[in-house]
Amino acid sequence: MWDAVHIIVGTFNARGGRELLALAFTKFFVEHKLGKRIFLYTKDEPNTSITSTFPLEFVRVLKYVELRPLGMLYSKKLWHGIPYIRALQSILTLSSNKTLTINLNADSIPIPAQICYVHFPYFGIGRDISLRSKVRKITHLWSLRLCRLIFVNSTFTKNVLCQINHDICEKTYVLYPPIPIRPMDKNDFIESISKRENIVLTVSRFSREKKIEMIIDIAKNVTEGEFIIVGSLVDNDYYVHLKKS
């Protein structure tokens, strides 16, 4: 058992695989009593109206942990602060046998940890050659090199990460997010095919890294059928841009 387990979450104020993954990790450490104290760090204050929509089996573990801001100080006013203190503490405890640090948003928050999770290495792809993009890539690769163990959400993501850096690839393993699904009965599935309308449905949060404009480009080249995009609103400007497209 570790004296303390520090889990860098990012946010609970979105409805997606990242949030379920964070809750599942927390559930595992709570149920197996792997930490005397378990801390979750978020960049914004959790909204209970959103967290209450997640499966109860995951959400109820939050009462056994301590929520803290990822920012500079343990203050709600500085919840959005630059997490350089958290990064420094993580580096100092990387070799500790008493403290475990887990970064479940290593692709967007470059804080080194013993265990890191990469949902997709956006920092290492694209044609952006700006100084900001170069610094971002260097910072993330440096952080991931310090991680002892790296998990990704699919073999596709692993292949992309391996193309970016071979050394990081050697300590990377696939761990699928715990998305709850209900298997459809085979007979119901066959029957539903005949009742389906000619619709292509895309479910995604409206966020720029999702590159939803690709769906619009595809729809422009399809002569039949209706395309529908449904999702939570994260970036309103991006949503407006898509509607104009």
Low-confidence stretches: none
Q: Using DSSP, what is the number of strands?
A: 9
Oligomer: single chain
Total number of domains: 2
Helix content: 25-40%
- Per CATH, the architecture of the largest domain is 3-Layer(aba) Sandwich
Global morphology: globular
CA gyration radius, whole angstroms:
20 Å
CATH class of the largest domain: Alpha Beta
Biggest sheet character = 7 strands, parallel
Which structural class matches the secondary elements? alpha/beta
CATH fold field value of the largest domain: Rossmann fold
Mean pLDDT: 86
Sheet-strand content, in percent, reads 15-25%
Please list the strands of the largest sheet in the order they lie side by side: 3-2-1-4-5-6-7
Distance between the termini: 53 Å
